[in-house]
Amino acid sequence: MPDDKLARTREFFAARAAGWEVKFPDDEPAFAQAVLELAPRRGGTALDAACGTGRALPFLRDAVGSAGTVLGVDITPEMLNEAVLRDRHTVANLILGDVATLPFRDASVDVVLGAGLLPHFIDPLAGLSELARVTRPGGTLGLFHPISRAALAARHGGEPDPDDIRAEPAIRQLLARTGWATRSVDDGPARYLVIASRRSQ
């Protein structure tokens, strides 16, 4: 059942929230570089979808400037609590919610970052469509992970799954079906970063 998967996701991250950034202490430069490549415009609105502890939020704030808006949405209260403890509520509006049903108007966001998001969508087609709904035509989506799919698979003693929706050409096809035009796919040895533009139709 979809609600069961949502509950499991919340439970998984709730149990790990307090030690999340201690466990992954070296990820910030990768987040900073990803935001740099997404190039949020000054004064624009940036959304960190499933923001977790909010690692990307300061970089998004620096990019959009004091006149811009930064939104961080996550379904796990414990993750948002960690973000507050790290003062990230001072650079972004933190919202408890499901990124598959966002409380935003159509075409109200300029840039969306989804770090580690794709594997946790109950329905990736619906989830990416929802991100497209809230993004203005020409706006940018970044699907990101600070380490590569190969490194993630190696942690579990395996190889990347060729049928993974994050792999090419699957991610390109999925984005095309949900209102996005893929600009680049970096599925290399160091990280995972897909950048796409919101199509006007």
Overview features:
201 residues; alpha/beta; Rossmann fold; seven-stranded mixed sheet; globular
What are the segments in which pLDDT stays under 50 over at least 5 consecutive residues? none
Query: What order do the SSEs take from the amino end to the carboxyl end, as H and E?
Result: HHHEHEHEEHEHHEE
Structural class of the helices, strands and pairings? alpha/beta
Strand content: 15-25%
Mean pLDDT: 93
Number of domains: 1
> Total number of β-strand segments?
7
The number of distinct helices, counting runs of at least 4 residues, comes to: 8
CATH superfamily grouping: Vaccinia Virus protein VP39
| Name of the level-1 CATH class | Alpha Beta
How would you sum up the global shape? globular
What does this entry look like structurally?
The chain is α/β, with parallel strands linked by helices. The chain has 8 helices and 7 strands; from the N terminus they run H-H-H-E-H-E-H-E-E-H-E-H-H-E-E. The protein has a 7-stranded mixed beta sheet. The model has no long low-confidence stretch (mean pLDDT 93).
